[in-house]
Design brief:
Order of helices and strands: HHHH
Strand content: under 5%
Largest sheet: none
Oligomer: single chain
Structural class: mainly alpha
């Protein structure tokens, strides 16, 4: 996939949707331990990306957050890189 490949933002959006769903679904929908394991697995996979790929993903996430109309989802997109372990949390 190239830097301008439209598949990158689409797949990034889907990844965020899965994590958003896992974080917001009830215990009766998904076992909490399974949800945590899945999110840890996703975080691990993202950390395996090359630095260039990770930087591209961070740019795509920032673009998605900028365009997001729902304030809570925008906040989720903004915090996604640190929550998934791609970057260290920044203190305010």
């Amino acid at each position: 996939m190239t830097d301008r490949d439209p598949l990158v933002p689409a797949l990034t959006g889907l990844l965020v949707d899965v994590v958003w769903w896992l974080e917001n679904c009830g215990d009766e929908e998904v076992d909490p331990d399974s949800a945590v394991k899945m999110m840890e697995s996703l975080g691990w996979a993202l950390l395996q990306l090359s630095p260039d790929q990770r930087q591209r993903l961070l740019h795509v996430l920032a673009d998605l957050a900028e365009r997001e109309q729902d304030p809570s989802r925008r906040e989720f997109l903004d915090s996604f890189p640190s929550a998934i372990g791609m970057v260290e949390e920044q203190e305010d």
